[in-house]
Amino acid sequence: MDMEQLIDRLAADVKPVPRHSIARWIALGLGLGAIGSIATVLLAFGMRQDWSVALVSYHFWVKWLYTLSLGLGAILVTARLARPDAGRLRHIWLLGIPVALLATIGLVEMSRTAPGDWLAMWLGGSWRDCPRNVLLLSMPMFVGLLWAFRHFAPTNLHAAGAAAGLASGAFGAAVYCIHCPEVSAIFVLTWYTLGIALASALGALIGPRLMRW
Q1: HSE-up of 99 (CA within 13 Å, CB side)?
Q2: Does residue 96 belong to any structural domain of this protein?
Q3: Which range of residues forms the domain containing residue 123?
Q4: What is the C-alpha to C-alpha distance for residues 20 and 33, in angstroms, rounded to an integer?
Q5: Whether this model's pTM surpasses 0.85
């Protein structure tokens, strides 16, 4: 039996993959994880007391749009890397757009604030807790994505793990907005992003061990 015959025989019983199966598995894994993350923030931290005020606050929506846009971009990269033929990620630079926009907002806010108050804007009242809490809230969704990846055939496991961690971290940060009262853009840019980066780094570290197929 030559190589072509062997390939034909191996491929003879392969069933076609349903359309949008990757999107469905990722949505299911992320959705189940999101339930765990929301339950965690409600039970462990609680909702912010001024929720009705927050919903009409410019600062709240800046935080939420930043984290959600990062999460959506990262999940598209994750879906791409779930395929064995992921190829080059030509549009990954788009993930930098939310970061650049938030940095611009932060600079504008600082320009309107006395320099003596900049440190307070940057550190807020919870800078020590924020990255850790974002990482914690990312874990249920990261586990959900790892479960979804058991149905895929990724080949770049480090990148796939990093992308899954980035998506989980960004959506975990979005969930954290339910609790976090911080309003400064420079706070969000620094400490939220640090928590998201930690989740991505963790994904890159353990992804190759848990996504291997």
Answers
A1: 17
A2: yes
A3: 21-210
A4: 20
A5: yes
